[in-house]
Amino acid sequence: MTYVYAGAAVHVPAPPEQVFALITDWPRHREWMFMTEARRVGEHAVEAYTGVRPFGFLDTMTITTWQPPTLVLVTHTGRFVRGHGAIRIRPQDGGSRVIWAERLRLPFGPLGRALWPLVRPVSLALLRHSLRKLSGLLVPET
After folding, report:
1. Is 83:76 a contact under the CB 8 Å cutoff?
2. Alpha carbon distance 49, 59 (integer Å)
3. What is the pLDDT of residues 123-134, one digit of tens each?
4. Distance from the Cα of residue 18 to its chain's centroid
5. How many domains does the chain have?
6. Which range marks the domain in which residue 133 is found?
7. Does residue 142 form part of some domain?
8. Digit-coded pLDDT (tens) for 8-63
9. What is the CATH number of the domain that holds 114?
């Protein structure tokens, strides 16, 4: 089974508590996560739809670690996206550093492995874009 890694980080001008609150406000994901709507569907479950209906995919996740305000770990359990994701928040220079990392099993078997070198740069660009949008939504508390 082949897994791939993608990750990105950004400095956010807000304290970890404020960043964690926005990141885990699942309905607000549409404001910063590229073409994605998310919702909590149980005490330890989240669903995220990425795309423009009907063209997209559902990403189901189980929250495996919840440590406010520093860490959320998920296991992706959907048909298309499977693997593990992490969002870590650390205090840094008058704000926070947000690190988003994914270790995912590629879909489509050998075709997915062959396409990954082309898909990876796009995936990384979308991660960085989403984190920059997240940063723009947060302002320091006064």
Report:
1. yes
2. 6
3. 999 999 999 999
4. 17
5. 1
6. 3-137
7. no
8. 999 999 999 999 999 999 999 999 999 999 999 999 999 999 999 889 999 999 99
9. 3.30.530.20
